[in-house]
């Protein structure tokens, strides 16, 4: 944390201790303080940092009013990206991508209900998309909006863009990163193939990180033992922490919503970013998006890039470059 941020937090703490209340009216900072609490030093600090305090209070108010909107990069002049994470709902999935797209690209992750441990998750893609649409319009009343989705969040992003478009908003592009088509979970053979392939690739990547054959063998044995234990118990352990339990329900209901969704026709631009060309045969069904969007454009990451890490270092730089290429933005 920088010295400036430490000083700012100390200022806020000093105000709170003295029961000095601040609020914003339009572009004005208002203050209510007990007699003698507002010293000349504090008064000067409030005057000098007025714009900073107003911005902080506005962000805090927006966070309360729009719990779905998680700002990863608020500044910038390019059309803002609103991004739907996968079925676990983690908004910071997009942190690395936002960083690589630069300071001129506003980027907001969308947090579903149920992730905070205080609300219940939704089990229909249409309802989740409608919830996000209301939050986005309240946060930014008019477009353009670029809508993004990752993994199983792709159907929600797709439906969200349709809702915004039907209401007259400009949606220049839907960007789907490693998207799963709903048929991945609707067809058991496809799901089994997809799950087995992903599990095998994950184990291979982790084993490759081990420096010796013995270490690799030990890791493989631990994974095998974990799988055997899971099969014997027949289910994953129940989370006792309220937030973790809520997120477990979110994952379950999100998969239910994902499985039931059928993408309808869409005439807008859709860019599909796959980790690599081999992923076309992964069981995720990326080509099946062409049924709803025959004109969808495909972009491929480098060989060795994987779906579960394509938005993380070191692969994310290549994916960010693909996005800039697709949207004709400079590569900096």
UniProtKB/TrEMBL annotation:
Protein name (Swiss-Prot/TrEMBL): Thioesterase domain-containing protein
A Pfam family recorded for this sequence: Thioesterase
InterPro entries on file: AB_hydrolase_fold, TesA-like, Thioesterase, TubC_N, TubC_N_sf
Ranges where the Thioesterase TesA-like domain occurs: 82-280
Superkingdom of this protein's organism: Bacteria
């Amino acid at each position: 944390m920088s010295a400036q941020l430490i000083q700012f937090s100390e200022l806020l703490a000093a105000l709170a201790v003295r029961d000095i209340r601040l609020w914003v009216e339009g572009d004005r900072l208002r203050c209510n303080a007990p007699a003698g609490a507002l010293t000349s030093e504090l008064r000067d600090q409030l005057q000098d940092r007025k714009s900073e305090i107003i911005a902080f209070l506005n962000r805090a108010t927006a966070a309360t009013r729009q719990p779905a909107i998680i700002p990863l990069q608020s500044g910038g002049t390019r059309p803002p990206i609103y991004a739907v994470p996968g079925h676990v709902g983690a908004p910071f999935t997009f942190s690395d991508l936002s960083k690589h797209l630069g300071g001129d690209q506003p980027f907001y992750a969308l947090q579903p209900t149920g992730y905070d441990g205080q609300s219940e998750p939704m089990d229909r893609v249409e309802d989740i998309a409608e919830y996000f649409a209301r939050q986005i319009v309240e946060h930014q009343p008019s477009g353009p909006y670029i809508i993004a989705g990752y993994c199983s969040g792709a159907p929600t992003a797709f439906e969200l863009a349709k809702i915004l478009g039907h209401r007259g908003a400009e949606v220049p592009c839907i960007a789907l990163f490693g998207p799963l088509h709903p048929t991945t979970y609707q067809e058991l053979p496809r799901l089994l193939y997809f799950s087995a392939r992903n599990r095998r690739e994950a184990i291979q990547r982790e084993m490759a990180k081990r420096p010796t054959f013995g270490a690799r063998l030990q890791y493989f044995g631990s994974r095998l033992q974990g799988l055997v234990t899971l099969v014997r118990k027949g289910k994953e352990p129940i989370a006792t922490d309220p937030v973790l339990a809520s997120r477990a329900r979110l994952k379950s209901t999100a998969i239910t919503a994902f499985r039931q969704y059928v993408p309808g026709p869409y005439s807008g631009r859709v860019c599909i970013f796959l980790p690599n060309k081999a992923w076309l045969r992964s069981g995720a069904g990326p080509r099946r998006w062409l049924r709803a969007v025959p004109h969808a454009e495909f972009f491929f990451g480098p060989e060795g890039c994987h779906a579960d890490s394509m938005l993380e270092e070191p692969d994310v730089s290549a994916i960010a470059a693909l996005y800039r290429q697709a949207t004709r933005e400079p590569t900096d």
